[in-house]
Design goal:
Largest sheet: 6 strands, antiparallel
Mean pLDDT: 84
Shape: globular
Number of strands: 13
CATH topology of the largest domain: Rossmann fold
Strand order of the largest sheet: 6-5-8-3-4-7
CATH superfamily of the largest domain: Nucleotide-binding domain of ferredoxin-NADP reductase (FNR) module
Low-confidence stretches: 1-28, 40-46
CATH architecture of the largest domain: 3-Layer(aba) Sandwich
Radius of gyration: 20 Å
CATH class of the largest domain: Alpha Beta
Number of helices: 7
Distance between the termini: 7 Å
Length: 292
């Protein structure tokens, strides 16, 4: 999965008006403006200068038909926070380089390894290499950890609301894994996960296991395109009623994290603001074709 680590700036929309000279003027959506202004401090974060390191592929496994995870052994890799990412760089024999960013999927356990999860993008430069070429024992260049605002540690507390669209679930999974392995009683948390089909749900078995064993965790899956026979879960895009149902079970979230395609992130973040959540408690991250 490819992630671009920028805070969502929202969008301007609304009914168009008319200036005195007769030209059209769009009306500002002040809900989105308020959300945008609250995240300016996130945009001002300057990442530290990081050196490229050599990682060894320790393990490769299949998550779905289009998604694989890779465990990378990185000696001396800095302590990271759930939600951060790494840059990966590939260099061809002729010197051509391609660089992409991938969220860290594992918890910061200090074992000297990190997991990344890569969705195959057919016309991408980096993801096909991971899916078709990379094997255990291969070496890959990376640098990190990178990212500041879109992070969560157990010390920040909860209740914690996570909303993911497609492979946007990857950094949220790092948070959930950290929550599960942290000392003390885990904070109340809910994951609202939107996917095209059940076969596209990443980490399905692990999410089911957490949901079955942890009464303080609430999992809601919604399938937007294909539903298997007998499916009794949600079957639509995330909407305000779905969010309210999740928050009724969770309680009012102290922190919310939303990750996925731009349209998903802006829609969900806007609905959370409409529900009365303070914009500075809503952290967002968008991904798209620029990170294939």
């Amino acid at each position: 999965m490819a992630i671009t680590c920028t805070a969502t700036r929202g969008k301007s929309s609304g009914t168009a008006g008319t200036r005195p000279d007769g030209t059209r003027q769009s009306r500002t959506d002040y809900r989105q403006l308020r959300f945008r202004l609250s995240h300016l401090k996130q945009l001002a974060v300057k990442p530290p200068t990081l050196e490229w390191q050599t990682a060894t592929v320790d393990r490769v496994w299949v998550e779905t038909s289009r998604v694989k995870s890779f465990r990378l052994a990185v000696p001396g890799f800095g302590r990271f926070k759930p939600g951060q990412h790494v840059d990966v760089r590939l260099t061809a024999p002729d010197g051509y380089q391609a660089q992409r960013s991938y969220s860290i999927a594992s918890a910061p356990d200090g074992a000297g390894t990190i997991d990344i999860t890569v969705e195959l993008i057919e016309d991408g430069e980096v993801s096909p290499y991971f899916h078709e070429v990379v094997r255990e024992g291969d070496r890959i260049e990376l640098r990190g950890p990178i990212g500041g605002p879109f992070t969560w540690t157990a010390e920040r507390g909860g209740p914690l609301l996570l909303a993911g669209g497609g492979s946007g679930v990857v950094p949220l999974m790092s948070m959930l894994r950290h929550r599960t392995t942290s000392a003390g009683e885990p904070v109340r948390a809910a994951l609202l996960y939107s996917s095209r089909a059940l076969d596209d749900v990443i980490y399905m078995d692990e999410l089911d296991a957490i949901s079955a064993s942890d009464p303080r965790f609430d999992l809601t899956l919604t399938l937007t395109r294909n539903r298997p026979p007998g499916w009794t879960g949600k079957t639509r895009r995330v909407d305000a009623r779905m969010l309210r149902d999740v928050m009724e079970r969770l309680g009012r979230p102290a922190l919310s994290y939303v990750c996925g395609p731009t349209a998903f992130v802006e829609t969900v973040a806007g609905m959370l603001v409409d529900e009365g959540l303070p914009p500075d408690t809503i952290m967002t991250e968008r991904f798209g074709p620029s990170g294939t």
